[in-house]
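Class prep. Sample record?

___
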Amino acid sequence: MPPDNVIQPDGLAKAYNPHEVEGRIYKTWEDKKYFHAVPAPGKKPYSIVIPPPNITGILHMGHALNNTIQDILIRFKRMKMFTAEWMPGTDHAGIATQNVVERKLAKDGVKRQDLGREKFVGEVWKWREEYGSTIIKQLKKLGCSCDWDRTRFTMDEGLSEAVLEAFVRLYEKGLIYRGNYIINWCPRCQTALSDEESQHKDVEGMLYYIKYPLKGSGGKGQGSGKGEEDHVVVATTRPETMLGDVAIAVNPKDKRYKDIKDRVVILPILNRELKVICDPLVDMKFGTGALKVTPAHDPVDFQLGLKYGLAEINVMNGDATINSIGADYEGMDRLEAREAIIADLKERGLFIKSVPHRHAVGHCYRCHTMIEPRLSPQWFVKMKPLSLPAIKAVKDKLIKFYPERWTKVYLNWMHDIRDWCISRQIWWGHRIPVYYCKKCLDTGIRNPKSKDQNPKQDLGIIVSKIRPEKCPVCGSTELEQDPDVLDTWFSSWLWPFSTFGWPAKTPELGYFYPTDSLVTAQEIIFFWVARMIMAGMEFMGDIPFKNVYIHGTVRDSTGTKMSKSLGNVIDPLDMIKKYGTDALRFSIISITAQGQDVFLSESKFELGRNFANKLWNASRFILMNQKPAEVGADLCELYKEKELALPERWILSRFYSTLSYVGGCLDQYKFNEAANAIYEFVWHEFCDWYIEIAKSTLNDKTSQVILYKILEKSLRMLHPFMPFITEEIWQKLPRESDHPGDSIMVQPWPYIQERLISRSSEEEMSLIIEVITAIRNMRSVWNIEPQREIKVIINTSDDQHKKLFSSNIEFIKRLARSADMEIGIRAKPASSAVSVVRGIEVFVPLEGLVDLAKEKLRLEKDESMITRAIHSLTARLKDKNFLSKAPADVIEKQKVQKAEYQVQLKKLKENLKQLKNAT
């Protein structure tokens, strides 16, 4: 009977069923508020804010990797007795969410304009209530231990207040202004985009060569263009924008155009007169060296227009159709207009040629539509003043990037930072807190305080967190709010402190800010990470986080980025159904080296599943043979009581060495190294070796205590990686009733017993394991039946080695299946297999065990068969027809099969060599 203070739970089921375990355990964790953290003065905080997933999002492998890493960190720090807070939440994702709801309405033949702004926004809120929590439920399936009681939304009341506060503060400091500038415009979403939201892709376009007649040459846009000096040839990738041309630019050093500098050029078709400007910005090597200048449709041309006082002619509507400026082309789509203009130019003899031209073109990061550079009045944040403290914080190592190489990427971008366009022409989002007074605009009345308080303040503008009752300047009540909303990232950049209650000075903000770790992907370093650092320094006067871990991109097994359109996506929820959550988490972490991309195939998840099964079976064996009375024994006291045998000293040392290494890896964000160290210890050292050794002494107190202690502490070490199975097994362990807490997740991280780490014991046991492994390999090579006992001779003259093998001979013989073992200086017997381990010769006499001639024939037959198989697979993998038609997973399987055959062939050749040596 166990002592009264020991709880003896029911045993483990025969097989581990993750689906029976995970939901039940997660509910218990939630019900008992284990994820919730409150400020605890005197206790060290550790906090993470989740990169808020979009409410339109569903869990993908990138989320699975990112959030598994965060969960490992938060569970680890929780067990290290920090007050660990993982702040969850979701992002309203302005453009993406509006697009989703618009598509939903379109199925019923309804446009948002039919509903009007207020009703449409109401529809988006309804959609959010119905579908916006999908990603949260999926994160729970992943085992995320977020403080769900604190879940935030970027458009909840508190965060909306923070957004308004930030806007007003920046405006009053002169850091927000309104200006008419070239911006990135998405014709599909019909909104401005920041530079970071306009993703450049190389496209195969054309460079069109067009004659622009010179005034006075008889051309006037209608002539044939004949003659050497009656025209200028201009090369352009976008003929449709020529409708907005106002000048021709050449380089003052370009001798080809020295005679036209004072001439007037005629715009083909529209016959607009264009001046010639000379500017060193013009690239003489591009095209013909003569460039059309269209200030309203090109950022470089816009700067030239400002420099030379050129007109700005916008020729497109918001949907990228040609406006009334385009005369006969009005209403045409931009690409349709391009073709029509080329046809007209050809008819007039003004088109020379078009040549292929590969160039980078911006695309909308949401809908992937080709963006249009467009002159438009927008709101901007002046970034240069904000960037300086953020640069200094990283240079001073107040914030560290992991891997370190991202520091340079961050600093390069920050040094070249441009102002941030923050206004968006959509309806879903935080409406800009700007109101326009119609009377002031009509009469030209300016706020008399504007010169002192804000030189950038525009005429008739009132910036206020709440709608003013009347204009503070003229008293008029005719006020109209700006129709635009703020960029989604304007709320996200406040996330590390707004989620804790800013602008209010809450206890949570004072305790948990600055946060400790940010885990994110490389593609949002500029969208989000850099801006959060700037916002933290500006509004909090402190960094938002201390460490930034940038993980790689999840790709398929061929290295291609996963994409629905390519059909190479692996759904994490499908993998959870098939293998279990712990298997998914452990597998993806094990193969993710720091900062490197992840090459993933479904077969990789078998690693985690097999590890879970191994752990379960080993735990079940230990529990079936456990004496509950021994669970309270202290390892150090046990160490004092008696001289432990080498296997006991070794396994204790290996556990504490591994524990120390794992903790160090987690502190340095080397998650795969930590996971692989645990795997190696639990699977190979504990299960394959120590448990096998201990089977002969199961009833001994020492074995009982060590088996229990190593299992229990290993479960705690593994818990951050595989929370469900470790909780389920831990709950089944007999333990003292006064053990703190009733869940593994609130247990302390195991304490490192430095005195139990013995490098000499590890080295000695390592040698024994190598010798036993060598004997087992020889048995395998010579096809000796597993149950058949053999004779082994260990040939060594080293006295320490003799003593080591002799004092541990019993378990060596048992694990090697050897009935007779000799140790000392021995000659090699005739017909013996031989293996050399660190200079020690190990002989296995084969006489009476193996028919050597028959064995040689078998090995040669296998060698021939595998060689043919390798040749066949090699030919197939070189076949272009096969490679172009076969699915990627089939090709991958063929590659794996070839690699396996190559390993087998190498082994067969080694075996044949050994056979030759034995005879």
Summary: Residues 1-7, 219-228, 449-457 have pLDDT under 50 and may be disordered.
